[in-house]
Specification:
There is one protein chain. The protein is of the alpha/beta class. It is built from 18 helices and 21 strands. Strand 3 and strand 4 form a beta hairpin. Helix 12 (476-490) packs across helix 13 (496-508).
């Protein structure tokens, strides 16, 4: 069948060439001329210009759009067509010279092969039809599909009534801070900000038929699924029975369990939708590379779809994200790049900045860009919201959802505003993020939070905050406590951000009456956090759990204070000491680690023998370099400021039970004591190797008291037990 189609296609191309010659002859005799363009020395004209009418309709042959010409008039047969690459004939008198075509301007562009060199039937779909530069949408030859993502184009194309963020349409370019991009080419410095104002044309009351986007409808779940991607969507709506009653709610409390998606989170929906919309727009082709900056769940959704469809996938994510997410991504075949958690979104070192740098370096790569891609909220507008309305029979009084990129709450909110206008939309934003409104809600000294996947330090383009009726802030302690309650009391194996949403829902739903209904979106599963909030040790380490909250039998030494240990005077080094000298000191004293302090005794961090040796062997540092370059862990003062790679301090008044939890994670613990110093002059305090003279008056400083290891704890316990037996 393909051979017949290809033969018919070649015959029609010859017929069109003959018509071109007939039209040219008619133009010479009667002065009529169609649109023309010179391509590589050959005159090419649109067949429609030579035909008064076009009988038949356009049909795709072998992947190429062709036009069925009208029946030819009777008369002498036309001359055979000249070779496609023959020299151009001189322009006849009375005719204007042809304008240069695209190929004449750009020799790198593809040229149409001669009719005699027809490719084999298997290659029919790769045939190229060259469009003249001025061909419009009604041309016989289609314009080649733009294979550039909307997030990758440099300038917005203003079209009335058309959303500039839909697949295939360009979007406005942002400006980056190039002062920090030293060593990068001008092309590598180009990136598109994820916080540009949205130009979406959605309006409340505007029919979906006028939408510029492709919309999907809910489908029945087949008994046998063709692949795992069909298991994305149609998640269950579950009644919350115990937590609502415990907090005195009168309304019905329901949970939309998005962790039942194939990849374990609500982001599976947007991962699949963005990928399939890019395929529909002709942007992605087999062998292309997908790059995405993400907190992990979107990456898992994209990696899952990429594994099924055969794309290379690179995920760029901050270091604070759990190792479980990294392991799942690697198992799905994705490549992972980690970036500093503290890097701001517009920094070249951020996950957004690194993703754009990789995009410029890797050929045929695309950033689907969840922060700007209209497919993100559309996935929830078309499916998630429709599922909720069907499951609730259209009766819904409140919806509570957390915000990360904002696609979930925007897409669901828009649909509910259309079909259930009385429903109140509640937004959840963690402390330390700035998505909430009014801006006063975002005022806090906190910059780091442990809950993953929600909150940002910029406003993503896809987030429509006008859809949110009221914002609430959540904190880490309540989020993890409610996540644990959902697991232990309701049997819902959800993640930390689900706890964030539920902690706000029990507050916001207090205003609802009996007979009313509140739906809470639970975004992801506990699978990604097995080593985090699900672990008592991690919760104790971060200060979210107290020892008395863990109902287990404690050993006799559990509540003994750390000050009971016999700790020797600590060995410390200054940051200016060389790596070579530090290694010599550690070997002489028989120590494996040593604190690094400034001249006033303020703690900067720790260095370990193993870390220094590995850095030297890898060539990262030289023996003559200062030890400040290989500080193993930075020192943080309070548990709320502790990042995933921070050094955990322990005080003399802490218990040995807390010390034992730290020693199960680290090989050592740094024992500190606080010193209060009062002076009129500025108090120097080393922060990352620089001196801060802004502190005046009374101030607290944490000084090194000692370094304790598991051997020290075991020796103390063994010695006390021996003494007890003697008595």
């Amino acid at each position: 069948m393909e051979q017949l189609l290809w033969a018919e296609h070649c015959t029609r191309r010859l017929t069109i060439a003959q018509l071109l010659l007939s039209a040219e002859a008619a133009g010479r005799s009667g002065g009529a001329s169609g649109r023309r363009g010179r391509r590589g020395g050959r005159v090419a004209r649109c067949p429609r210009a030579a035909l008064p009418t076009c009988a038949g309709k356009e049909a795709g042959i072998g992947g190429v759009r062709a036009l069925r010409p009208a029946p030819q008039p009777m008369g002498p047969p036309p001359l055979p067509p000249p070779p496609l690459h023959a020299p151009a004939a001189p322009t006849p008198p009375g005719l204007q010279p042809d304008r240069p075509g695209p190929a004449a301007l750009d020799p790198s562009l593809p040229r149409r092969p001669p009719p005699s060199s027809c490719p084999p039937p298997g290659l029919a779909r790769r045939a190229t039809v060259w469009p003249p530069r001025d061909v419009g949408r009604d041309s016989c030859f289609p314009r080649p599909k733009d294979r550039t993502m909307p997030s990758e184009l440099s300038k917005a194309e203003e079209k009335p009534g058309v959303c500039p963020h839909r697949p295939g349409n360009p979007a406005e370019n942002g400006k980056s801070d190039t002062a920090r991009c030293t060593g990068l080419s001008e092309k590598e410095r180009k990136w598109i900000r994820p916080d540009m104002p949205s130009k979406c044309t959605w309006q409340l009351g505007k029919p979906t038929s006028e939408s510029p986007h492709y919309h999907v409808s809910l489908a029945q779940t087949p008994q046998i699924m063709p692949d795992i991607l069909k298991k994305i969507g149609n998640t269950p709506l579950v009644r919350i029975n115990k937590i609502g009653k415990a907090y005195g709610l009168k309304c019905e409390l329901l949970a939309k369990c998005e962790f039942f998606n194939a990849g374990g989170s609500v982001k599976d929906r947007i991962g699949l939708r963005m990928l399939e919309d890019a395929e529909r727009a002709g942007i992605l082709k087999p062998g292309d590379t997908i790059i995405e900056p993400t907190s992990g769940n979107t990456g898992i959704g994209l990696a899952l779809a990429a594994a099924v469809k055969g794309y290379r996938c690179i995920i760029v994510m901050p270091e604070k994200m759990s190792m479980e997410k990294v392991d799942v991504l690697r198992a799905l075949g994705a490549e992972i790049v980690r970036t500093p958690t503290t890097a701001s979104f517009d920094s070249p070192e951020s996950h957004v900045g690194v993703a754009w740098r990789l995009k410029h370096e890797i050929p045929n790569s695309h950033i689907l860009d969840q922060y700007r891609n209209a497919s993100n909220p559309l996935a929830h507008y078309d499916t998630t919201a429709e599922e909720i309305l069907q499951q609730c029979d259209g009766k819904l009084d409140m919806l509570v959802a957390s915000a990360g990129t904002g696609g979930t709450i925007t897409g669901i909110g828009r649909k509910l505003k259309e079909k259930c206008p009385g429903c109140k939309i509640i937004g959840v934003d963690p402390e330390g993020s700035l998505l909430a409104e009014p801006e006063d809600l975002n005022k806090t000294d906190k910059t780091i939070y442990e809950v993953e996947g929600i909150g940002y330090d910029f406003i993503p383009t896809v987030l429509d905050r006008a859809m949110v009726d009221k914002w609430y802030k959540c904190n880490d302690e309540e989020s993890f406590a409610f996540a644990r309650m959902l697991i232990s009391q309701e049997g819902l194996l959800c993640g930390g951000s689900s706890g964030s949403t539920m902690s706000v829902a029990v507050k916001a739903a207090q205003e609802l009456k009996e007979g009313q209904r509140c739906v809470v979106i639970l975004p992801d599963s506990v699978r990604n956090y097995m080593s985090k909030f699900l672990s008592d040790k991690w919760m104790l380490q971060k200060g979210f759990l107290k020892e008395e909250d863990i109902m287990i039998n404690k050993p006799w030494w559990w509540h003994v204070k750390v000050q009971e240990l016999s700790l020797s005077a600590p060995l410390t080094v200054l940051p200016a000491v060389t790596c070579e000298r530090t290694i010599e000191i550690l070997r002489e004293k028989g120590f494996d680690q040593v604190p690094v302090v400034d001249e006033s005794g303020v703690i900067l961090g720790m260095v370990t023998l193993a870390n220094m040796l590995s850095s030297l062997l890898a060539g990262k540092v030289r023996p003559s370099d200062q030890v400040r370059k290989v500080i193993y862990k930075q020192f943080q003062k309070t548990p709320s400021d502790i990042s995933s790679d921070a050094l955990i301090p322990i005080r003399l008044t802490d218990t040995l039970g807390k010390l034992s939890h730290i020693l199960e994670i680290d090989h050592f613990a740094l024992v500190v004591h606080e010193q209060i110093q009062s002076q009129d002059q500025a108090l120097p305090a080393m922060v990352g190797g620089t001196t801060d003279h802004s502190n005046k008056g009374s101030s607290k400083r944490q000084m090194v008291f000692g370094v304790v290891t598991a051997i020290d704890l075991l020796n103390f316990v063994a010695a006390r037990e021996r003494d007890h037996k003697k008595d």
